[in-house]
Amino acid sequence: MYNMGMHISEERLTAWKKAFAKSGIKYETDDEYKEAIFNLVGYFETLIEMDKQQKADSSNAKPDLN
Prior knowledge:
Number of helices: 2
Helix content: 55-70%
Low-confidence stretches: none
Mean pLDDT: 89
Order of helices and strands: HH
């Protein structure tokens, strides 16, 4: 769910609306746009954390001595 403490300026919200519209995405309210933005950002944050963890795991692996 959208983090109500997250602030998005009107200028940024308008830019996001235009970006969504280019992909054929239309929401009814600003809150729906804000929730979609929050979810999208959260998705990318999760992917970044997974990538960091994978890199840390692979750098901690023992080298193959064969």
